[in-house]
Model the fold of this input.
Amino acid sequence: MADSTPRKKKSLLGRILKWSGITLLLLIITAIALPFLFKDKIIELAKQEINNNVNATVTFGEFDLSLLSSFPDFRFSIKDLRIVGKDKFAGDTLASIPALSLDMDLMSVISGSEYTINSIDIEKARILAKVLPDGTANWDIAKPSTDTAAAPAGEPTKFKMSLKSLEIEHAYVVYDDASIGVKTVLDDFTHTLSGDFTQDVFDMETMTTIEKFTCEYEGMSYLSNVKTSLKADLAMDMVNMKFTFKENEISLNELAFGLDGFFAMPGDDYDMDLKFKAKQSEFKSFLSLIPGAYTADFANVKTSGTVAFDGYAKGLYSEAKKKSPGFGLNFQVKDGSFQYPSVPKPVSAINIDCKIDDASGVPDEMKIDVNKFHMDFGGTPVDAALHVATPESDASIDGWVKGKIDLAAMREFMPVEKEDQLSGIVDADIKMKGRMSQIEQEKYDEFQCSGKLDVVNLIYKAKADPYATNISAMNLLFSPQFVQLNKFDAMLGKNDVHADGRIDNLMTYLFKDSLLTGKFNFRSSMMDLNEFAGEEEASATPAAADTAAMEIIEVPANIDFVLVSSITKLIYDDITMDAVAGTITIRNSAVDLSNLKMNLMGGSMTVNGSYNTQNVMVPKVNFDMDIQNFDIQQTFKTFNTVQQMVPVGQYTTGKFSTTLKYTSDLGSDMMPIIETVNGSGTLSTASVIVSGFPALKKLDEALKINKFSTVNLQDLKTVSYKIENGRVSTEPFDFKAGKATGKMGGSTGVDQSINYVMDIAIPRTEFGPANAALNGMIAGVQAKGIPYQPGENVNVQALFGGTVTDPTVKTNLKEAGANMMDNLKDVVIDKVTEKVDSVKKDVINKACIEARAKLEDTKAAAKKTKEQAYKVADDAKKAADAEADKLEKSYKNPLEKGAKKIAADAARKKADDANKAAKTAADNTEKSTIDAAQKQVTDNCK
Done:
């Protein structure tokens, strides 16, 4: 009895442990098994949602689903997620994410009705956010809904955001907005965000660090590789879309400042009331922002002086209402100085007083006041001031700059590498005062602008630079009308540059963004552009390479420059051009080439045409070229376009001349879009050799001769061709290839397909044994007395198809040989027929001759008979007329005379009628007699 209670306790404890173990085991089994049960379903659903809703090419690596590491949430992981754009952004990588994790509510996954996402974690992403000049953004990839019946407005997707945290680790982000000219780079970007986004009102905590932050605006760098951090807590009012800054601190290198106020998005507008102010007053904190200053040595820089930096942005930004917030900026440095530990002298007496204020938000009411800018380099001062008011309507300008710097002495003030070269004198003394209207109205006497900028013997080369810059002389003179470049002589590496000219409208260009005009003479004896390109830096990752591709070069719209150029030798890539001369005009977002001449590729070329970026998304080129005696092999190896459009050049040697009118669109890599290439021209050559061209090799095989594997084409003149829809088409042209002559025409496609027709007259002697057999047959025929002699040439037609490397050839050689044999048979048959016809003709000719002789006799006899009949009729008429005369003269009185005259006239008429009747009868007799004889001739002479 005493032991029963402990045993019961032990038994109870055992059961508890047993069931606890079973329960734990079941939980472990469940945690392991559940991901396998739901993994395929979630993966399929994720792919389906992405493909149905995204207009981009999305690729994935491995998928995984686990519960143990994120309990009580499922963790859905995707490896190597990659999003590549389409249409305007074809080939651009929007995002490359090695690892993406989503934590999803466990019960939402089990129920399967809607998957709730609680947190997102992104690792080492590389993101390119790009906006084109027309405002099109590459992240706008959501497909528009086209099936309203299948997907009614407001219908939720299978995934629901219930975000409580977001973490981005060590990302590389580029934001490139061409519509406003802004480009930022966030290198090693880490961001954490937490807050309950399921609530309407909550606090959000964020922490952001950027190891290297770079910001450019319109090509000018304002921040370069700045180490940045931002810790900000915001009160989030999601109902009113108002976000109020609470505790926060922003650091840019050593400069830290705070931000107070709010930012709201009421409708389509933005409302703000923000103030910022530097938290430090030491000059050193500002100095850290200067590019190149923030280095390992910066911690030991001696500084003095104070800095004040603050500003604000307040008001509504509304495109519809055309309103902008007011803003202001104050920046002051008092008695600043700095000295690097490695140099003997400080830069001292740095005093800057700059204010920018536009409280109304109206750009024309902005005022810029640089009341003071002073720096002292060991007793050599640099001073400047600038005041600008009403910058849009009629800018009022009052400014000056003065200073003379010996760059060689800069080694005493700035750390310069021993290998770096720096020397020369820069002397500036420029003043201006007046209003823009005075320049626009050409009242130059009222606008004060004078001064100079001289550079003498400037030499600069950093250790990492591929070449040195040596400006032996530059002289700029300033006046209200223009800036005169009197002299510019420089050596850029091994390239000499000489220029002079003038720039007009500089002031209106700077303050009114008006057209800047100028004209320059540019001369050089050597320009090697490859020296300026330098070596390409290898990208850290493939994704970085995506963002480093060659981009479109945009020609400014507000520049009108004319460059009259003369370059003795110009080298670009592996192309060497000599005696380059002509006029280059930059105007209307285009570069126009006028009568630009040069020697290259063993010949010469004259170019007229343009490169046009009026539509910067699709640049266009339009060239009219006259090329003389280009070497074919050099041309083929140098130009990719020639390799694609004229692949036969690979097998061709010699020189050619051509005139070509050519247009094309260019892609984002500045290369021609082959499908848009259109052109026409003529080509000529004295002699080219085509050797090893697969199509001609197959022609040899088809003809069973070895005459076309290597062909010397001679005296090709005025061969017309055109380029259209990705094909080069050649009009039929006459050619000579050895002893063969012919005509050829057809086309080659960018897909390397060929379609040509060749009509060739080939001498029979080229066919060897086949020709000898034919000659034997001809000799046998001739021995039988048949004088047959065939033509010297065999006419063959060849049809080329397939591709350049895998051609097809069809010929009518068999038909040509059969025709030759048929001709020989026809000659024999014709000879036999000729003999039969000859005998038959002799018989017919004899009968014909006899009939013709008889006809002549009949004609003579008939004529004689007719003449006799005519004589008898005439004699009878004469006798009758004599009797009538006798009768008429036998009257005795007047009454009798009248009666006898009537009787005599009647006798004469009767005699006349009888005469006519007798002659008609004689004529008819003659005709019928001759007709009968003529019929006999016709019958016998058929």
User: Anything to note?
Assistant: The longest strand covers residues 159-177. The radius of gyration is 52 Å.
